[in-house]
Amino acid sequence: MDFDLIVIGAGPGGYVTAIRASQLGLKTAIIEREALGGICLNWGCIPTKALLKSGEVYEQLSHLADYGIKIEGRSYDFAKVVERSRGVAKQLSSGVAFLMKKHKIEVIDGTATLQKASPAPKVVVALKAGGARTLQAKNVILATGARARTIPQIGLEPDGEFIWTYREAMVPKACPKSLLVIGSGAIGIEFASFYRALGAEVTVIEALDRILPVEDEEVSVAARKAFEKRGLKFRVGAKVTKLSKTKTGVSIALEAAGKAETLEAERAIVAVGISGNVENLGLEALGVAVDRGHVVIDTHCATNVPGLYAIGDVAGPPWLAHKASHEGVHCVEHIAGLKPNGLTAPIPGCTYAQPQVASVGLTEAAAKAAGHEVKVGRFPFRVNGKAIAAGETEGFVKTVFDAKTGALLGAHMIGGEVTEMIQGFAIAMTLEATEADLMATVFPHPTMSEAMHESVLDAFGQVLHL
Q1: Position 296 confidence tier, pLDDT thresholds 50, 70, 90
Q2: How confident is the model at residue 1, as a pLDDT?
Q3: Domain housing 262
Q4: Who contacts 259 (Cβ-Cβ below 8 Å, separation ≥6)?
Q5: How many CB atoms lie within 10 A of CB 39?
Q6: Who contacts 440 (Cβ-Cβ below 8 Å, separation ≥6)?
């Protein structure tokens, strides 16, 4: 037996899993066909935040007078913006390489396929350096992630120049003057926010009737208003029937409210979801259960094939890096014979636009649909002292409680740096805190997090500053 565990894929799910396995004394190998850190560190979570920070800083320069500061003119070097983003990605990927070495995890550069064997499938690796290597382990974990979903039939497929997915959108040679973004989920909105900050005319197209459709409806409405103030345009309830290239850019044919229309721009970003990387792994021959492009797993991330597990994006939604890491740690602790808690911990979701959006748990509508009698609290940042001092008064905090038990069912935020605050509510939900626990918690003053406390108080008729 070559290893106790082989992990296929070195994204935030795979590499964290490998580290935890090493800590538990398992001889571990990790296989990666591209770069350590996967999509998240190299083409997703991290480098996009670097781009967004550049856009945020540039946009703030036009509001310096609000803070009593003067500056003459402003400009940006787009190549340097992209270069900084790539540098951040490279630094973190190198950091993962260091962690693999530190924990004595063997890194194998190549593409893996599975073959029938016992006690777990055999792993055959086509090495980057040439040749092949066949490995056997007691357990194998699939952490192969996902890629941007495309729809070639109607032209929603990148060409590397005019039509982009997130990959192409991160490294263009210049900032387009006009941009069409198809899809208003977190990926679409973040790129729309970045390019708008640098001055592009951006229109976001969404097939559903509101943007950020997985968020609470009040947050979606507030987000749209805030984004429109920044100059973003939206076409909701609009179905894309055809995306075509033109001499000067792209053309999109839409159907909305029973009418056809056409929009044109220099570039288009396709952000209509993702697809799990389940192809060319040998899953069919093994008989691995796959449902709608994702590997089916049980409560410990096990597939229907002995010794084979799957975590992260390849195992289905929510498609979030921290969910992948959480699943990986749980999975490997189960393999090691520990008794980890179930995979039911609440998973926060964040959108790093301006303003930011963050949430955890059930929306108000979902809570009611699940049969809960709810109490809902809200508190706006416009009356929060720190927010007023910082000039970040946009947005609010909303909390949803079970009226009978006082359990926190969900929390939803829009505003400055709310992605840094949502974890407070995630901890509360994980610890099964009630409204009494949250109301008795002391929040530091002055902070924007005080709005979290006030929102809880508001749900139970005790709000202090409104």
Answers
A1: very high
A2: 86
A3: 152-272
A4: none
A5: 24
A6: none
Please list the active-site residues.
Answer: 445
User: What average pLDDT does the chain have?
Assistant: 96
**Parallel, antiparallel or unpaired: strands 28-32 and 3-8:** parallel
Give the β-pairing of 349-351 and 356-361: antiparallel
279 with 267, same domain: the answer is: no
Q: For residues 351-380, give the mean pLDDT.
A: 98
User: At 342, is the pLDDT very low, low, confident or very high (cuts 50, 70, 90)?
Assistant: confident
CA-CA-CA-CA dihedral for 81, 82, 84, 90, to nearest 10: 170
3-class DSSP state for residue 45? Answer: helix
With beta carbons less than 8 A apart as the criterion, state whether 439 and 459 touch. no
| Token pair 């997703």 in the structure block, residue | 44
The reply to whether 33 and 121 lie within a common domain is: yes
Q: What pLDDT sits at residue 343?
A: 80
- Taking the C-alpha atoms of residue 65 and residue 395, their distance in angstroms, rounded to an integer, is 22
DSSP state of 443: P
Residue 376 shares a structural domain with residue 396: yes
Are 236 and 252 a contacting pair, CB within 8 Å? no
| 3-state SS, residue 232 | coil
Backbone φ and ψ of 398, nearest 5°: -130, 135
